[in-house]
Amino acid sequence: MHGLSLIKKVIRLEPVERIPWVPFVGVHGAYLIGVDADQFLLCCNPNSLSIIF
């Protein structure tokens, strides 16, 4: 089973053969590029992955 289909099954609470893992960079990415965490997580740059809940 491929990653995306595995994640979709877990979201639907269906049984899966292994637990999916989704990498999250978070504030560690901010440190690596030399910006603060707020700027990194709330950035409107289309090349970044902003967190929206």
Question: What's the topology here?
Answer:
Layout: H1 3-11, H2 27-33, H3 37-42
How would you explain this protein's 3D organization?
- With 53 residues, this protein is an all-alpha fold.
- The chain has a domain at 24-53.
- 42% of the residues lie in helices and 0% in strands.
- The protein is elongated and about 40 Å long.
- 2% of the residues are buried.
What does the radius of gyration come to? Answer: 15 Å
| Beta-strand proportion | under 5%
Question: Which of globular, elongated, flat, extended, rod-shaped describes the shape?
Answer: elongated
- The SSE order reads HHH
Number of helices: 3
Tell me about the biggest sheet?
none
Unreliable stretches (pLDDT < 50, length at least 5) are: none
Secondary structure tally: strands: 0
Computed structural class = mainly alpha
Percent of residues in helical segments? 40-55%
User: How confident overall, as mean pLDDT?
Assistant: 78
Question: Descriptors for this entry?
Answer:
single chain, 53 residues, mainly alpha, 3 helices
Summary of the model, kept short:
With 53 residues, the chain is mostly helical. Helix content is 42%, strand content 0%.
